[in-house]
């Protein structure tokens, strides 16, 4: 998949836990039961993006925080937490970040400093059908990708992706359980200005029967569930599982990427471009983010109002249960198998500098990645300093997996 989670998250996860890999055919061991971007682990690996179908068991990943109607504006990053510090309480922290986010002019600014893999901001609440909108100014330049997508833990995916070499349109795309099919990509042109200089509103309107991509309120593309029916498997290859909003800025144009990905993104990133020289980073801006939750599909088993849980390994919509079970781990060594096995940590605030996880191998070794242990407390410029040196390490780990 030409996608941030395939490169960026995997590079981080690969460092987090030794080298036990996972797939549908080779699930994780009980000792590190959570499959995160193809690697087994505990703690952070069991939270968002933990794939239940590749993990030790369906309940290895933590339950997924239920959808919340909300409008988000960014005057600071107090509602967000470094993703390797997050324990699963979406009421405490609405967002998890990695990389180099900051706030500018009341907008969320995702940046990609020199030689880094950029930034990712993920909503901790899942959306199981709903309408999600944001005003966005994309980044620009070949090999520089701005993303506004919904992604489920079994890799159903709904995308707006801005490829930085073409500012007159945005790409719309969808995936079912991560099955690659690039012919699903369709461009949607913006009617005024371009995607970089002009604010436009991008909306994903996702219901059980149909999916629409809108720009400035105009429907640019519609996908019906019916149209995705696969008569061979008897399955609708339609995005249908609880998904999180991910906003990202990442490089498709790295020499380590596949030729197809590099071409798709418009060539290699130019690290001495005008934007790099002027600001020291590429950036994209996001504001006025709204989430409107739709009701679960008819026939869904509802046993609470806290979380979504997978009850079978089909990974299909009719196997999702709405439960009352908690989404919160006691600490970063715990897993979905027993979320309260270890000592209870009190989550640190995103600015306090207390290090809830300083004994945790997960977050300690994680400091070699783009984000750092204690990154929650370090300044933007500290993170950039550390990241620019170390991002390459992450990439090297990732690519050694394949
Ligand atoms: C989650 O955080 C909120 C706000 O900080 C707190 O009131 C609540 O008790 C926490 N929930 C759990 C399950 O820890
Ligand atoms: C923030 O606002 C100032 C003043 O209007 C403007 O000069 C600057 O370019 C804005 N920053 C961004 C990233 O758009
Ligand atoms: C940008 O995308 C539009 C819409 O698909 C297309 O017509 C145009 O040729 C593209 N421009 C470039 C430079 O590829
Ligand atoms: C890709 O999706 C299209 C419909 O968008 C479908 O016609 C085609 O068969 C799919 N190809 C593969 C290889 O799955
Ligand atoms: C979609 O499927 C339903 C149920 O099979 C059917 O009633 C309906 O006519 C289909 N719609 C389209 C547009 O094919
Ligand atoms: C339909 O499902 C079959 C069996 O799972 C699979 O081999 C095939 O690639 C699917 N077709 C499409 C178009 O994805
Ligand atoms: C990178 O951008 C700079 C500034 O626009 C330009 O001079 C240089 O030729 C570009 N490099 C490449 C390889 O395109
Ligand atoms: C980015 O890093 C490369 C390699 O260290 C360097 O050649 C280039 O000048 C840097 N770009 C900027 C804008 O500092
Ligand atoms: C969200 O708001 C809609 C109406 O705008 C309402 O129908 C729905 O029940 C709400 N969902 C939640 C989870 O609050
Ligand atoms: C909820 O948690 C209880 C106690 O841990 C567990 O037995 C049960 O299977 C969980 N329910 C679901 C739907 O995961
Ligand atoms: C979880 O671990 C704690 C501490 O070892 C233990 O007391 C508790 O019974 C365990 N819970 C489950 C559901 O296994």
TrEMBL record:
InterPro entries: Beta-glucanase-like, ConA-like_dom_sf, Glycosyl_Hydrlase_16
Low complexity bias: start-end ranges: 346-378
Signal peptide: 1-18
Gene Ontology CC annotations of this record: fungal-type cell wall; plasma membrane; side of membrane
Pfam family, one: Glyco_hydro_16
Domain of life: Eukaryota
GO molecular function, one term: hydrolase activity, hydrolyzing O-glycosyl compounds
Domain spans labelled GH16: 65-280
Record's keyword annotation contains Lipoprotein: yes
Region (Disordered), start-end ranges: 342-378
General function of this protein: Dual chitinase/transglycosylase that plays a role in cell wall architecture. Chitinase and transglycosylase activities are coupled. Required for the polysaccharide cross-linking at the septa and the cell wall. More specifically, transfers chitin to 1,6-beta-glucan in the cell wall.
Family statement: Belongs to the glycosyl hydrolase 16 family. CRH1 subfamily.
UniProt protein name: GH16 domain-containing protein
Organism: Aspergillus saccharolyticus JOP 1030-1
């Amino acid at each position: 998949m030409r996608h941030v989670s395939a490169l960026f998250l995997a590079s981080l996860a690969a460092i987090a836990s030794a080298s036990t890999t996972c797939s549908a055919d080779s699930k994780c061991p009980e000792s590190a039961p959570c499959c995160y971007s193809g690697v087994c682990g505990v703690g952070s690996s069991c939270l968002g993006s933990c794939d239940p179908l590749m993990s030790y068991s369906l309940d290895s990943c933590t339950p997924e925080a239920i959808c919340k109607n909300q409008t988000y504006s960014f005057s600071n990053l107090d509602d967000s937490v470094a993703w390797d510090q997050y324990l699963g309480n979406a009421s405490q922290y609405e967002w998890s970040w990695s990389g180099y986010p900051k706030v500018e002019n009341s907008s969320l600014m995702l940046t990609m400093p020199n030689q880094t893999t950029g930034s990712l901001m993920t909503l901790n609440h899942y959306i199981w059908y709903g309408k999600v909108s944001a005003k966005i100014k994309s980044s620009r330049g070949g090999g520089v990708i701005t993303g506004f997508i919904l992604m489920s833990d079994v890799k159903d995916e709904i995308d707006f992706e801005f490829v930085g070499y073409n500012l007159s349109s945005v790409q719309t795309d969808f995936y079912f359980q991560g099955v690659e099919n690039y012919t699903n990509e369709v461009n949607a042109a913006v009617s005024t200005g371009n995607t970089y200089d002009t604010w436009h509103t991008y909306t994903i309107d996702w219901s059980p029967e149909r999916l629409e991509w809108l720009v400035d309120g105009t429907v640019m593309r519609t996908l019906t569930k019916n149209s995705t029916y696969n008569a061979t498997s008897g399955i609708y290859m339609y995005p249908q599982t609880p998904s999180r909003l991910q906003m990202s800025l990442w490089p498709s144009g790295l020499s380590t990427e596949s030729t197809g990905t590099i071409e798709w993104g418009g060539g290699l990133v130019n690290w001495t471009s005008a934007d790099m020289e002027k600001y020291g980073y590429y950036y994209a801006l996001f504001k006025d983010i709204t989430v409107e939750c739709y009701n679960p599909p008819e026939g869904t088993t509802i046993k609470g109002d806290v979380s979504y849980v997978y009850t079978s390994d089909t990974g299909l919509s009719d196997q999702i249960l709405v439960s009352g079970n908690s989404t919160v781990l006691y600490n970063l060594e715990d897993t979905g198998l027993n979320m309260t096995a270890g000592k209870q940590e009190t989550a640190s605030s995103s600015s306090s500098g207390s290090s809830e996880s300083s004994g945790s191998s997960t977050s300690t070794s994680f400091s070699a990645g783009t984000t750092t242990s204690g990154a929650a407390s370090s300044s933007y410029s500290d993170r950039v300093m550390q990241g620019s040196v170390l991002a390459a390490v992450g990439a090297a780990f990732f690519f050694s997996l394949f």
